User: What shape does this take?
Amino acid sequence: MGRFLAVRAAVVSLMLLAAFLLVWHQATRGVATVAKMDPAYARLMGATATQGASAMPGPLEVGAKLFEHLRHPFYDKGPNDKGIGIQLAFSIARVMVGYLLAVVVAIPIGFLIGMSPLMSRALDPFIQVLKPVSPLAWMPLALYTIKDSGLSAIFVIFICSLWPMLVNTAFGVASVRKEWLNVARTLEVGVLRCAFTIILPAAAPTILTGMRISIGIAWLVIVAAEMLVGGTGIGYFVWNEWNNLSIANIIIAILVIGLVGMALDLVLARLTRAVTFPE
Amino acid sequence: MSTFDDPFDPSRPLNPGCVCGRHRSQAEHDHAAQRLLQCAPVEHAPSAERRYQGVIASAVMRAVFPKDAARRAFLKSVGSATALAALSQFFPLGRATEAFAEAGPIEKKDLKVGFIPITCATPIIMAQPMGFYAKHGLNVDVVKTAGWAVIRDKTLNKEYDAAHMLSPMPLAITLGVGSRPIPYTMPAVENINGQAITLAVKHKDRTDPKSWKGMKFAVPFDYSMHNYLLRYFVAEHGIDPDTDIQIRAVPPPEMVANLRAENIDGFLAPDPVNQRAVYDGVGFIHTLSKEIWDRHPCCAFAASQEFVTGSPNTYAALLKAIIDATAFAAKPENRKQIAEAIAPANYLNQPVTVVEQVLTGTFADGLGNVRNVPDRIDFDPFPWQSFAVWIMTQMKRWGQIKGDVDYKAVAEQVFLATDTARLMAEVGLKPPAATSKTFAVMGKTFDPAKPDDYVASFAIRRA
Assistant: This one.
């Protein structure tokens, strides 16, 4: 039954995709009426103006462009024109550095907050104020103080992926069942040993859920940050193609960003499942 | 062949390597020879002057005889002494060597120069693919940057050694308007003219500026010629730019998209944005900026004072490369070639025909006409100090700077006209004798000696 459901779901997914592509194709195929033009003038104009082609590319055009990109994903034609594979690698590297820094900082501090009700109350207002700040708001400040655009981008990833992990770790640690802690206390388990053998495994699913939320946020933020600082990365690619008003390339970038985001999420979902325990 | 070999030697090897051809480099050859013959006589290194002479003569020889075979045949038949004499006759080898030698060694070869992808940056961009930086011994990466604020911060952070800026920006940075005050210099203007007012196609019939009340306009940056020119233009038509219309700063790449979405009614923008709006059928070119002020400066090549004084030879080489490129771009016959060099994704990332229309001045205006304005954009590196004074009068007029301004002192500190004049002479251009000149904006003459009277003479002003 479960297998059968999966097959049916896949069929429905494919049908939805096909329907979407068909509607998209029909919607962008339409040719607007075009005023008569002097041929010398028409030669200087783009297809939108001369043939009334839609400014929105159709699925076929996007497919052809995508094929181009996939054929040479790693070309390097100078500092401002690199293949989409290289751009993705830059973005993923930045996200990883910023994210891992956030993990290193957030989990110990989260532990501290979770184990101490005093710190939890004391730090709460700061966390609540800083948590909802948009990545772009951090950017000018980071550029001004760090004085390096590459590090600024990493800092922005760090600061934005910090909060969900911090809050979730604190929550996970604080809500470890009292009975388990009491058992540990009666057995005279030391603080460190208690933290690693009882609290950590008990809070692990919550911590990993926080990490999963964070990686999603980090990946969201990188595009915005790279659009701002430019240079390399998938965000820069989007900005560069926006500059060229190439909607087809932007659609491709959206697709690629979505796929990578999904892959990152899947990895952490697997990890979460690995540490989940039945009660 | 090595640049430092004797250029008049007919048997000079063509490939880099050693004289005997068995080693990969001269150093390796020397090392092997030393091992064979420990008591070899010590050879004196050629003096620096001789070496420079060799470099210059090599360049000249190669320029005169680009084909290796022909150069060798010539040298064989007449001998090197005659060749030297003959060349010196029509090329002042002595003077050229001197100019080169004066520069001294370059402190830093690998440089990063930031640019915004617009045609104003043409000299900075084209100097890379067309080899002007390499010609002056520099290895320059030109890096595309997302916006003016970012390019300013990255230059202030020293991530860029020099950058493409709007010509009011170095003035604003030096005065500390909109950023912390840092002594900044602007040794060269990149382009003159080359901007335009573009309106959405739906405003086809509202060409009279008096009917523009309530419209929304975009300019690239608050401290830009675009902002001052647009304000000047509408104010001359009796429209107050602060109360009657709305002007907002929008980065150039977003302008066309905003115009299509009817978020804005028009913009005064750098090219290729104007031509791109026409190309995509969303706008028409209302007024070229040359019709407001012919030969106005727009973008600039800027560097921090620290870079200028800290590495003077690198700065001189870089500036020479830019001036050289600017001179090349100023010739109309080179424009097509430049358009092809700077249109690809690595630089402007625009269709070639759009860039070509901008640079050649034969363009579609968006209303069905093909116009031919050869000096729609032009290139002239000379940073007239009176330009700086005019820009500051406008900053004052619109309330961007308050209080008294020492116009002349700031202009002299930022617009390095004398440096440019010296280097222009070195690369064989004729610099103007004065550093200031009067000009007319929309028929009204500007006298750089009386900036305060000029500000006071406008009916619409904030100061």
